[in-house]
Specification:
This protein is an alpha+beta fold and 265 residues long. It has 2 domains: 80 residues; 153 residues, Beta Barrel (Sortase, Chain: A). It has 5 helices and 8 strands. The protein has an 8-stranded mixed β-barrel with strand order 1-2-3-4-7-8-6-5. The radius of gyration is 24 Å and the shape is elongated.
């Protein structure tokens, strides 16, 4: 059975269980009504009115747990399917340091629910998974959302960090006007680079919140510095468009767009 058909079955089962739950609660909360036999199903021939309240609550709890598990499986599978295009692409590690390549190869992929989207910069041939935070596990495999900053596409300043000797080493060639694409589970976002700056390590002024939807990419600098890098490389971009992924669009109309000709690295 295909993933799509499997998810359809799961959603149907979840809907059925939710309906049964509503019926059970209604009966349990109506002690003055005559006992009515429930429709046959996974709780065949039980009469809640004749049971102890504890047993009724236990059954309701079991239904809630079943519903949660079904919805959880559906969410993870749906998210993985939405971003399945990324798994088909080989990660380009040609610019990476040897140590970063080894860490990438030896680190297992994070769980699917840690993956929140994908970042694509066509002019740099850069594609990287975006994880929910910047813990080392996630930065060994991709890039991560900076804590306490906005989510991509929302009003405010969204931050994404990555290692200078890994995925974000390609940022050394980025230019003002380049396009940055972010694909989340429900939206395709297109940004355009407005500025590129090098700041001191403790300078967080470019990470402050903004009034308009903004995306800020952060990595250490210099890119080939040996030891702890003293500065930060900051790429600031402004939102150009946002497309709801529930509305069908032609394949690759947003990702891998041709806003500008690709440059060789």
């Amino acid at each position: 059975m295909s993933i799509r058909k499997t998810m359809s079955v799961i959603r149907a089962q979840a809907t059925s269980i939710a309906s049964k739950l509503v019926g059970m609660i209604r009966v349990a909360c109506s002690p003055s009504r005559k006992t009515r036999e429930r429709p046959r199903g996974i709780f065949d021939d039980y009469r809640l009115q004749s049971e102890a309240p504890e047993l009724t609550l236990l059954k309701i709890g079991l239904v809630l747990v079943s519903l949660y598990m079904l919805l959880r499986v559906d969410a993870i599978a749906n998210g993985s399917r939405d971003l399945s295009w990324f798994d088909e692409q080989a990660t380009d590690t040609s610019l990476w340091s040897d140590s970063r390549r080894r860490l990438y190869s030896s680190t297992s992929a994070p769980p699917p629910d840690a993956l929140v989207g994908a970042l694509v910069i066509p002019s740099l041939d850069l594609a990287a998974p975006i994880y929910i935070d910047t813990r080392e596990l996630h930065l060994n495999r991709g890039v991560g959302l900076v804590a306490a900053m906005a989510a991509p596409g929302d009003s405010g300043n969204a931050g994404i960090a990555g290692h200078r000797d890994g995925h974000f080493r390609a940022l050394k060639d980025i230019k003002k006007g380049d396009g940055i694409e972010i694909r989340t589970r429900d939206r395709d976002l297109l940004y355009r680079v407005s500025s590129v700056a090098v700041v001191e390590r403790h300078d967080t002024s470019l990470l402050r919140n903004t009034h308009s939807p903004t995306l800020t990419l952060v990595t250490c600098y210099p890119f080939y510095f040996v030891g702890r890098a003293p500065q930060r490389f900051i790429v600031r971009s402004e939102l150009v468009s946002s497309h709801d992924r529930s509305v069908p669009v032609p394949r690759h109309s947003v990702l891998r767009s041709s806003m500008e000709p690709r440059r060789s690295i």
